[in-house]
Write a structure and sequence with these properties.
The complex is a heterotetramer of chains A (about 300), B (about 400), C (about 190) and D (about 100). With about 300 residues, chain A is α/β, with parallel strands linked by helices. Chain A has 12 helices and 10 strands. Chain A starts with a helix and ends with a helix. Chain C is an alpha/beta fold. At the B-D interface, strand 9 and helix 9 of B face strand 1 of D.
């Protein structure tokens, strides 16, 4: 695990000049992941904010071989790249030891990309899949995804007179990935850069498919001051809304236990998408969410050693 | 017969698989679908038996098959796949991407009707629907052509002036599951004919050389059009390259190929335009009608994309009546998909033939010699009377 | 354009009608003929009535229509006659019907009311005796070889041996059983 | 300033471009506030550097020192100022006069 000053000696592989929003969580995630990988690396991106904002012809922010083909298929596309790598390496046409990374937003990972994600994981291609999870379709204008938390306001799960935002709970994708029997699954946040860098370093050592779900605050879609991006990601951990854990070859390990578990409302308070939950009439909803967060937290604890 | 080929019995699916074995691509990614399934079944046995160096990826859908082929091809690997019908439809999005990223992927397509109603038998609605995806399309009359076309496809796709994906099609069941006599080339002949793929910019080369490239960037109003213009030019270049390679193939192995085949068309007064296995049946009919003194002929389209516009125009220009046989319906109230292309070819002629369309064989409906003879009779009647009483006829459907 | 000889095979899913057409076609290729062999495809599974077809010619075959008027019909399972019109499209005078049955050609003729040429052979019995299983398609290929004369017996045997040697390298008894079945059926097929 | 755009004949084929070229695309003009460094408070912990989404914090990696902000790229999000454990960065309104 390198110190910050050691990391600073590494070449930036995700460089300045990209057009993500000021304070974008995905930009930090991409930069951290790329700094963590001190090896030759090939990256693929699913269609989404990160892809659109980092490669606008003729400008690219990726100082490594990079490919985008479509929205729902980054895992399949990198499957092909990784397979070609194995084929050509076997033939002696390639000498370098390379790492393969796929980035997808929650839309391209939890929803439309779930099939290709599952297929690539099941086949065990050697790649690290990073979901930069901003909990909605931000690139197309903040529509709900299956990663969107219950009651969050999005443009397709709007808060209205009779419906208080998204009706459903978010999908537990890390668990689905664990069920694939892949060697490494983890959650992380950009606000704990050591945690994220450590997990990326760990993941790329496995000879197989690995997956990290990184909560990636979106100042636009969540509605907060951009300077709070990292803080808000940490608060998700402190409220146990986004526990930090990893599952190494099936074994659960909690990476961080808040000294004092904060109430979920502390997280909601900072975000415009949950503003309606602070109204007195919505108190039962708050309670319901708190209960579910508690339940998921306990469930996770029971799985961890 | 030139070459050292040997005569064997193969179905089109077997021929596809054998050609793939001889091409020995670096990566094959595929998903099963009737009637193309056998191709990858046979091929995965070749992989299991160590007869090829290929890395085979049994993907979870056709969309991922094409995506993986794109990933492999952009990494400098020779990539192939095969599919049919719904599988091709599921790939649709990726077809355009493979072509626009200029990837020489080779795909064996076994023509099958599109749902609904669900049907596993032959028509051309699947590939004709993909006509504007930027893929070169080569249709095969029989198993021999299926085999020869795949081998030529590698050279066409990888030609530096072209660099476009190629789909080689064969008629579902009619050819895919029909054992026919073919001449196979030896493995060495194929290897020598296709050669090593020319090296171009690719992901892994850029990794190896530390000169990172970005592929598939967002192209907005200021660049998209230029990239599409390049793609159009590549397709135009294919018009030059395809007959050159067809000729070279003929010189080496005794079977030459062009854009299309003219059968007794030169002195004909009426002719049909046809694609795929029906062309063979059509030739038998032409011979029979010729015996009766009828001046009939046939033009079999082999290359539908790029569309050999000028050449077809010239080949049909002297006819009085042209009948287009469409094995797909445009469901557009006036014709199948091949018809408007042929009309467009003829439009600028000083003296235009009359032209009518026949939609036939949907969902594998058999097309008999009598049916084709009936079509010719209809064309001869138009030639005789100078009157066209219909623009479109459905052949072989219960009225 | 030479005459194209057309054959239709009737069987039940699993009896090897498809394989028979493929094997017969393949054998004809090795004797220098041009052939087609294709099954009729549907969603049928084991036991359902199925058909397959051959075209054989001494010059390349171009037609790709279905076969409606075969020169020969081969029936692998005579119980099919109850459900399927096995003589459909056969020329009532010149058409040839070859049936796997212990019955005599006369008895078959009477049963079907068919006036063309009928040949019978107890292929199932031969298969059980020689191969040890009721797979009538191999002996029927032998019988068809005799009836049509399209290919020669020794050519068929040589070709079959070559193919089986690939598949049953370690089971010579299977190869010999099949060859024996072909020979036996070739010799035992009865015409009127 | 408008870059000279290539014709279809001049462009590399297949939507391929050189990696890392966005360094030529300055995003500094997106900013309405700019971070200002207060050297006397700075402990050179590099937290601002690791926290920046735009890679706009310049450091001297050999000597382990904060060097300054890259105003060509800084979009003024204020994360560095918020994260700084020593309040050594403050955000000030962009007046357009600073260089």
């Amino acid at each position: 695990m390198p110190s910050l000053k050691q990391l600073a000696k590494r070449e930036e592989k995700f460089v300045s000049g990209h057009r993500l929003c000021p304070g974008c969580g995905a930009g930090i995630v991409a930069r951290l992941v790329m700094l963590a990988i001190d090896k030759p690396v090939v990256v693929g991106c699913a269609t989404g904010c990160l892809e659109v904002a980092s490669t606008i012809f003729p400008y690219s922010s990726w100082k490594i071989p990079w490919i985008h083909s479509a929205f729902e298929n980054v895992a399949a596309t990198i499957s092909g790249v990784e397979t070609a790598y194995r084929a050509l390496k076997k033939q002696g046409k390639i000498s370098k030891d390379a790492v393969f990374v796929a980035f997808g937003g929650d839309g391209g990972t939890y929803d439309i990309g779930l099939q290709s994600l599952s297929g690539a994981a099941e086949r065990g291609h050697r790649m690290l899949y990073i979901c930069y999870d901003n909990q909605a379709y931000m690139n197309t204008g903040i529509q709900r995804s299956s990663a969107t938390p219950k009651c969050a306001h999005t443009t397709t799960s709007p808060v209205g007179k009779v419906i208080p935002g998204k009706k459903q709970w978010s999908k537990n994708l890390p668990e689905i990935m664990v069920a694939h029997g892949i060697p490494y699954v983890a959650t992380s946040i950009p606000g704990r850069w050591m945690d994220l860098i450590n997990k990326v370093e760990k993941a790329i050592k496995f000879d197989g498919f690995t997956f990290i779900d990184v909560l990636s605050p979106c100042r636009l879609g969540w509605g907060y001051e951009p300077s709070l991006t990292l803080e808000i990601s940490r608060l998700a951990v402190e409220t146990c809304i986004w526990p930090l854990y990893e599952v190494i070859e099936g074994k659960y390990k909690l990476n961080y236990r808040p000294k004092e578990k904060k109430p979920v409302v502390e997280w909601f308070k900072l975000q415009r998408r949950f503003r309606h939950l602070l109204k007195p009439e919505n108190e039962p909803l708050l309670e319901e969410i708190q209960k579910e967060v508690d339940r998921r937290w306990e469930e996770l604890l029971s799985k961890c050693e | 017969m030139k070459g050292t080929g040997r005569r064997v019995a193969k179905t089109a699916n077997e021929a596809f698989a054998e050609a793939m074995r001889q091409i020995d691509p670096d990566v094959v990614a595929a998903y099963p679908i009737t009637p193309a399934t056998e191709i990858v079944q046979i091929f995965s046995q070749f992989v299991a038996d160590g007869l090829v160096k290929t890395e085979f990826v049994a993907v979870e859908s056709e969309h991922s098959a094409m995506s993986a082929c794109i990933g492999a091809s952009i990494s400098g690997a020779r990539a192939m796949t095969g599919t049919s019908s719904q599988g091709l439809a599921l790939m649709w999005e990726m077809l355009y991407i493979a072509a626009a990223l200029r990837l020489p992927i080779i795909m064996a397509v076994v023509n099958r009707a599109l749902s609904a109603p669900i049907n596993i038998h032959c028509d051309h609605s699947d590939t004709l629907g993909a006509r504007d995806s930027g893929w070169i399309q080569i249709y095969s009359e029989n198993v021999q052509e299926t085999y020869d076309n795949v081998i030529q496809a590698v050279r066409i796709a990888e030609h530096p002036d072209v660099r476009l994906p190629v789909m080689v099609t064969t008629d579902g069941f009619i050819l895919s599951h029909c054992l026919e006599t073919i001449e196979m080339l030896t493995d060495e002949e194929v290897k020598e004919f296709i050669g090593e793929p020319p090296v171009r910019e690719n992901l892994l080369k850029s990794l190896e050389e530390n000169k990172p490239i970005t592929i598939g960037a967002l192209d907005l109003q200021d660049y998209y059009f230029e990239h599409k213009r390049q793609e159009a030019e590549a397709m135009k270049n294919a018009l030059k390259v395809i007959p050159e390679i067809g000729k070279e193939f003929g010189e080496k192995f005794g079977r030459s190929y062009g854009f299309f085949e003219e059968y007794k068309l030169e002195d004909a007064t009426v002719g049909i335009v046809v694609m795929g296995s029906t062309a063979g049946t059509g030739k038998d009919v032409v011979d029979e009608l010729r015996k009766e003194g009828k001046k009939v002929g046939l033009l079999k389209i082999r290359v539908f994309r790029p569309f050999p516009f000028e050449e077809i125009s010239k080949a049909l220009s002297h006819l009085q009546v042209v009948g287009v046989m469409d094995r797909a319906d445009g469901v557009n109230s006036y014709s199948g998909p091949v018809f408007p292309e042929i009309c467009a070819c003829l439009y600028d002629l000083e003296k235009r033939p009359k032209i009518v369309d026949f939609i036939y064989g949907l969902g594998g409906r058999d097309i008999r010699k009598e049916d084709i003879a009936g079509i010719f009779d209809g064309l001869l009647k138009i030639a005789e009377t100078g009157k066209k009483e219909f623009n479109l006829k459905y052949i072989g459907v219960r009225e | 354009m030479d005459t194209v000889f057309e054959i239709r095979w009737h069987g039940r899913g699993g009896q090897g009608a498809k394989t028979a057409a493929l094997l017969f076609g393949d054998a004809a290729v090795s004797t220098g003929k041009y052939i087609q062999a294709f099954p009729e495809y549907g969603p049928e599974r084991m036991g359902a009535p199925v058909q397959s077809f051959n075209r054989i010619s001494s010059s390349p075959i171009r037609i790709h229509s279905a076969i409606e008027n075969p020169d020969v019909v081969v029936v692998l399972d005579f119980t099919l006659a109850e459900q399927v019109d096995i003589t459909k499209g056969l020329d009532p005078e010149k058409g040839i019907l070859l049936v796997n049955t212990p019955l005599t050609p006369e008895e078959v003729k009477k049963k079907l009311g068919f006036k063309g040429k009928v040949y019978t052979v107890a292929a199932s019995k031969i298969a059980i005796e020689t191969i040890g299983r009721n797979i009538p398609n191999t002996p029927m290929i032998g019988a068809l070889t005799k009836v049509t004369g399209i290919i020669k017996l020794d050519e068929l045997i040589e070709d079959t041996r070559k193919k089986l040697e690939v598949k049953f390298r370690n089971r010579p008894e299977v190869i010999e059983g099949n060859i024996e079945a072909i020979k036996k059926a070739y010799n035992e097929v009865k015409g009127e | 300033m408008e870059e000279k755009k290539k014709t279809w004949k001049e462009l590399p084929e297949g939507d391929i471009l050189e990696g890392g070229t966005s360094l030529q695309f300055k995003t500094g003009n997106w900013r309405s506030e700019r971070p200002v460094h207060i050297p006397e408070k700075c402990i050179h912990c590099f937290i601002c550097w690791i926290s920046c989404p735009d890679g706009a914090v310049k450091v001297d990696e050999e000597n382990g020192k904060f060097v300054g902000f890259d105003y060509d790229f800084c979009k003024g999000c204020g994360i560095c100022a918020y994260e700084c454990p020593k309040d050594a960065i403050k955000m000030v309104p962009e007046t357009g006069e600073e260089k």
